């Protein structure tokens, strides 16, 4: 009996939920941080390197980012070559305990012809598909289980409850998209193929190739012709990108420009589910407005 009491005492002292003993998790993107909080609850302390205002393709880590990684047990990134800037920071952090999670492991990747990274890892904006989000959350749950000495069913239960919420939000959006007579939109940057595929929208084309690269005058002229010929009515841009070219296209063709954010941290959304719903609602509203 005495041994049992002692054992219980030891277990409760070792539990990660006690006081400051939370599992320290660093994520690259704020959306990954939200997922980690949804699944990790009061057992985790989460920090995102990006606030959401930066371009995730070209971010440059700071000294304090390296310190964060050095002090973390788990590092969650998307993977698929999105965070090529992270490798140096991981090396500099010299943290042999660090569990590095490629959250995208196991998702079905859309090949965009090397349009993103030169290494043909496919389009990295996988998190914008809610079905992929479920897979990514499961990967996060497994990593937290690995990092937690006494995980029990805690993470698994929270993951399953959260996955149900993601699936029901996606179902509600799909029903609304299915009723749209015209589901096509033009994307300024190729962030939206997963979002479109999962929810029933159609990406009619992408304005820029590699992120940060501006289209030539000739390809812009071709685009203007296409917008007119195919009656494309909506162009999706992003708050993290320059609005110059979308404005030119709008002036030239009258195409409606709407900003959707692939990242949390801009606008009012504070969770992934808010962001998913807000992006879908903005795009549905733009596509529903009367044609030109
Ligand atoms: Zn991109």
What fraction of residues sit in β-strands? 5-15%
User: SS-based structural class?
Assistant: alpha/beta
The name of the CATH topology of the largest domain is Rossmann fold
> How many angstroms does the end-to-end distance come to?
80 Å
If you compute it from the alpha carbons, what radius of gyration comes out, rounded to the nearest whole angstrom?
Answer: 21 Å
Associated small molecules: zinc ion
The coarse overall form would be globular
Which H/E pattern describes the elements? Answer: HEHEHEHEHHEHEHEHEH
Number of strands: 8
Helix percentage range: 40-55%
Can you tell me the CATH architecture of the largest domain? 3-Layer(aba) Sandwich
- Indicate the mean pLDDT: 90
Question: Could you name the CATH class of the largest domain?
Answer: Alpha Beta
Residue runs with pLDDT of under 50 for 5 or more positions: 11-18
State the main characteristics:
292 residues, alpha/beta, Rossmann fold, 4-stranded parallel beta sheet, 10 helices, 8 strands, binds zinc ion
Structure commentary:
The chain is of the alpha/beta class and 292 residues long. It has two domains: 14-104 and 112-170, Rossmann fold (3-Layer(aba) Sandwich); 176-288, 3-Layer(aba) Sandwich (Rossmann fold), CATH 3.40.50. The protein is 45% helix and 12% strand. It is built from ten helices and eight strands. It has helices at 2-14, 30-40, 63-70, 86-93, 130-147, 154-178, 193-199, 217-229, 244-253, 272-288, and strands at 23-27, 44-48, 74-77, 99-102, 184-187, 202-206, 234-237, 256-259. The strands form two sheets. Strands 2-1-3-4 form a four-stranded parallel sheet, with helices on one face. Helix 2 crosses helix 5, helix 5 (130-147) packs antiparallel against helix 6 and helix 6 runs parallel beside helix 10. The longest helix has 25 residues, at 154-178. It is globular. Residues 11-18 have low confidence and may be disordered. The structure holds zinc ion. Residues 57, 116, 125, 189-191, 211 line the site of zinc ion.
